[in-house]
Amino acid sequence: MEARAPFYASKVTCYAVHPDGRTLFVSAASREKGHPRSGTFSLDTERLEWTRHGDWLLPFSGQAYFDAELEGWVGLCGESPGAGRLCACDVVAPPVAGELTTSRPPSWKLGEDELFRKDPKLHLGAKLLYMGHSMFCLVEHLLHKDDEHLRSEAYNCPPRLRRVLCVTTFGLRYNKEGQLRTTLQRARACKTYKIHHDSRGSRKPVAFWL
């Protein structure tokens, strides 16, 4: 039996898998008549049952990952003051069958380091990947610095625009002051490529870790 999601797929802001391996948490705009506001939901993939946890949202943008050493979910921050930074969030308890589920928003902490390139006008999107053992990889999608002025010429068929993919790997830990800091930055590489002027591809890079 298919479990119909109680939210709009196009309105999903973030998602994360619980460390139990069977529960998926999603923050999105609700489609339920009695709960029209956005909220956080969980899917038990064994029972194929959705549960609403509250009108609050997880603090991430896109996919978040559980890290055992940090004892929480980690992802790109979806809150406006934390753009370009990571944040760590307490794991929400999965629902218990037969019990009413109403939970408070989990506590979370904003990372201290800004990971995106300095010029926000060039930023198009980013994808965070989890490599295991508190190691992460950030893939950032950028407009080439010499093509930024061409974005306003969409109706005049501008030349093929250049895009830049920047890949950075790093570790993550709490320091002695309890701050979430990046560490062990091992590699940073950038690749430039061209797209057609009529390209309608996603601004967020598609990437995965094997």
SSE series: EEEEEEEEEEEE
Number of helices: 0
Query: What order do the strands of the largest sheet run in, or round the barrel if closed?
Result: 4-3-2-1-5-6-7-8
The low-confidence runs, each spanning 5 or more residues with pLDDT under 50, are 154-158
% residues in beta strands: 35-45%
Largest sheet: 8 strands, mixed
Percent helix among the residues?
A: under 10%
The total beta strand count reads: 12
- The structure class reads mainly beta
How confident is the prediction overall: mean pLDDT? 85
**What gyration radius follows from the Cα positions, in whole Å?**
19 Å
Q: What's the end-to-end separation, in Å?
A: 31 Å
**Overall number of domains:** 2
The general outline is globular
Salient structural properties:
210 residues; globular; 8-stranded mixed β-sheet; 2 domains; mainly beta
Report on the structure:
The protein has 210 residues and is mainly beta. It is 0% helix and 43% strand. The protein has 2 domains: 9-110, no CATH class; 120-195, no CATH class. The relative contact order is 0.13.
Briefly characterize the structure:
With 210 residues, this protein is mainly β. The chain has strands at 14-17, 23-29, 38-44, 49-54, 62-67, 72-76, 86-89, 108-110, 123-132, 135-143, 161-174, 180-195. Helices cover 0% and strands 43% of the residues.
Q: How are the SSEs placed, and which strands pair?
A:
Elements: E1 14-17, E2 23-29, E3 38-44, E4 49-54, E5 62-67, E6 72-76, E7 86-89, E8 108-110, E9 123-132, E10 135-143, E11 161-174, E12 180-195
Parallel strand pairs: 1-5
Antiparallel strand pairs: 1-2, 2-3, 3-4, 5-6, 6-7, 7-8, 9-10, 10-11, 11-12
